[in-house]
Automatic annotation (TrEMBL):
The chain crosses the membrane at residues 43-64, 70-92, 104-125, 137-157, 169-190, 220-240, 252-273, 293-314, 335-354, 360-381, 402-425. It comes from Penicillium cosmopolitanum. It is a multi-pass membrane protein. Belongs to the amino acid/polyamine transporter 2 family. Residues 46-124, 139-428 form the Amino acid transporter transmembrane domain. The keyword DNA-binding does not apply. It is found in: Membrane. GO terms for molecular function: L-amino acid transmembrane transporter activity. PANTHER family: AMINO ACID TRANSPORTER, AMINO ACID TRANSPORTER (EUROFUNG). InterPro entries: AA_transpt_TM. It holds the Pfam family Aa_trans. This is Amino acid transporter transmembrane domain-containing protein.
Amino acid sequence: MAGSKKDLEAEVPVHVEHTVGVQQNHDDVFGELSDDAPNFRNVGFIGTIILMMKSQIGLGVLAIPSAFDILGMVPGIICLFVMAFITTWSGYIIGTFKLKHREVYSIGDAGGIMFGLPGRIYLASGFCLLDQPYSCLSHATCTAVFAAVAAIVGFGFSSIRTLGRITWLAWVSLPCIITAVITVTIAVGIQDRPAAAPATGGPWVSDWKVVGNPSFAEGIAAASSLLFAFSGTPGFFSIVSEMRNPERYPAAMATCQAGVTAVYAIIGGVIYYYCGSYVSSPALGSAGGVIKIVSYGFALPGLLGTMTIVTHIPSKFIFVHLLRGSKHLSSNTPTHWMSWFGCTFGVTVIAWIIASTIPVFNALVSLIGALLGPVLCIQPMGAMWLYDNWEKGKSQKKTKSWILGTVWSVTLIILGVFLMVAGTYGSVLSIMTAYSESGGSVAFSCGDNSNST
């Protein structure tokens, strides 16, 4: 939650200057933070956990049961834990890299340090697109109209200038999305059959599978959906940059990842166990009827909260990059305000276009997870470790930890290439199939995308 200026002074190891009647703190990203400027370093420990959990838990959790249906229960859970382990390591590297390079605000800045301007442009562009499907919040009304309304609301909330002031929204929206999925989980457990199952034919028994039998394209697309569930990871750069005490980031990140993984495994496993191949995607439609309405009622504030955070963070990156080094970055000038609103509006429009162009839920989630997940959640962190540690192996004796770290980092970079190429291939095939099937959603349509199997 937002803290006082006194808390900022007590916890942040920054250079302090005193001017006439105004106290200023210097930050390597935001410059001078004076009393009459927005407080960009005001996120506490608990607030950090909530913001990170909310950046992770969103649309991704709604695709996990259907991913388990494709892969099977055991391979699905194993794949989920593998993705969780890799992104937790990536999250740890984000913290260590930030503390060594205090000027970094986003993954684009890290790319600039490692690879110069091309690296900055490449990672920054991908980051601004990674979590932008959130204006396609699933629903049963006109898709095009609802997406536009969601985008407008998201623009308003994401235009709040500091993460410290957005933390309250994460506190509200995180319980909402968890309540929604728990409601569906309980409902499918006590109902005699899922909403999509045949209504006749005697007692219904779930056809869940221990091990699935997907094609390569189906399996890799499902794995990409599980990676998308952890796609908030690169946003941790911005969150740690606005912490009052960045040294406490590793504990906050580990707590976040443990909680997120537990929610994903329990919710995904239970819903799939009771629904089997008749699980809906998004999963909120699995119980049907009144439960579907109730669960979407809880979920929408939660998804709007996630949309706010994933719009705010790339907007802030662009904003910082545009105004860095000038007085306008941390001052309430007309240039400051026009630049800020221009950034949030531009990112919102891009999100709306992406969501409206590919309104097929599973296909959108797997495509974003495949095309951008490895590039932003896996490969850069391997490169960051190599960047900060490679010289140690050249100038000193190669230790076992250095060798293991090098092998692990290189392996992740190679794995990322495979996941990106193969996952994109599988996702594109699923999109083509969805568009060719009768009744499939089309771009900018009023088709109902709140419930599919």
